[in-house]
Predict the 3D structure of the following.
Amino acid sequence: MERIDLAKTSLRELNQFLHHEIRNKKIKHVEVVNPDGAHSIAAGVDAPVKIEVRGHTGYYCAGMNKQAEIIVHGNAGPGVAENMMSGLVHVKGFASVSAGASGHGGTLVIDGDASLRCGISMKGIDIVVGGDVGNFSAFMAQAGTLVVCGDAGDHLGDSLYEAVIYVRGKVKSFGADAREEPMTKADEKKLGELLERAGLKYKPKEFKRIASAKSLYNWNADANQEY
Amino acid sequence: MCGIIGLLVKRPDLRSQLGDWMVPILIGMTERGPDSAGLAAFTDRAKGESLKYSLYADDADFDWKRLETSFKKHLGSKIKLDVQDNHALLSTHLEPEEVRTWLHEHFPGVRVLSVGKIMEVYKDIGTPAEIADKYAFQELEGSHVVAHTRMATESAVTPDRAHPFTAGRDFCLVHNGTVSNPYSIRRMLEPRGIHFDTDNDTEAVCRFLEWRMREGDSLEKALQHGFSELDGFYTLLMGTKDKLALVRDAFACKPAVVAETDDYVAIASEFHALAHLPNVNKARIFEPQPEQIYVWNA
């Protein structure tokens, strides 16, 4: 295992190491210590490597991740795992705004709460949040799954496309076109797999399904902008 | 952008640490605000009936001795003047209206940055490190401090448009964000005799809240009014003689992180600026929720 100390190594050196050397040297496990809230830690990694960050991270940690398993033993700043393509990002603390924004694939697990706009514009990523999510979560979410084990804030799933949201707790309010739907066997299977992947013991039956009513899919000239 | 910084020292025996702990946080926020910086520190109480006036002279070579002599001659009152570069802290028992009018007539290049029993303000253009050095921020002692690093968006880069803004006595405010209706707020306040020093959007927020409190609102009530009157994005940090208060707008686009221990409450726009505080690894760390009012007592 390689250990990189961000108190001694620059962020650019760390990320260049993660982009090039780990592939050339076939390194499988990297530990990053003293992150101290630095931005863009382990952004743009594209290799099957396990990266453990011992502390809190700043903006855009693990952004654009491909293949890697990135574990943050602390809290994550805004935009953690934004635009992730594949792999796993696991935040042991809480995550700031826009966690998993625009993610195409892979899994983002947040043990604590996620702030506002979690999963905004997600495009295929699976996000599992152990705690609550803030307002406007899954706004314009196109594909993928958002699992919320706690409560959701205002305007959940506003202008949803094909993404599906499962919430265990209370939803403060639904966004335009988001609605609760009955859970199917397929939902329970998918949710069970995601909870297991996240290491959470909740049962799929405790959750409700929220999806798009699809009334915004086509322009309705008679709606008079009353959505 | 902009960086906001707040620090409240809970234990009186640690108040000598205020400057030492705050300066690295301020410098840590340089990337968010490299063009100006400033702070309001809540330090010693002015003696007796005296008030503290933080003054700023536009001219770097301003003759403060002349101001001191002239003040005594015209107003017949002895003053104490602590000069720090082109800032000076003036202590007098005279009322703000009289001091302001006199300054305006005799020294139009000198601005009153703040008035209070406890608060003093320093702000200028330059990097946070330059400003901290110029005004010896490291040496500050006191119960709490509200500071700011500015990346200007809504008005020019000048010392008077740097934050904190103040209004009334012992009240200051720093802001990260932009308010889109400062002129409607001004149009509401100016007919009530409220004077504005700059065209800055944050000044409108500061004067609005201070006006609400003069009308009888508590700080919390004034902020509730703020939620309905202020249009825009904001994380606001405010200091009063005995409180530090923090709020974010409904969309919470502008960041803030709080680290609280038994010894202090520290606030910055990003965690990395707090990472070097003593025992921060044992602190309760959280992000303020939108439209929730956080108040700590000094």
Observations:
- The two ends of chain B are 28 Å apart (CA to CA).
- Residues 257 and 270 of chain B are 6 Å apart (CA to CA).
- Chain B touches chain A at residues 250-253, 255, 270-276, 285-287, 289-290 (CB under 8 Å).
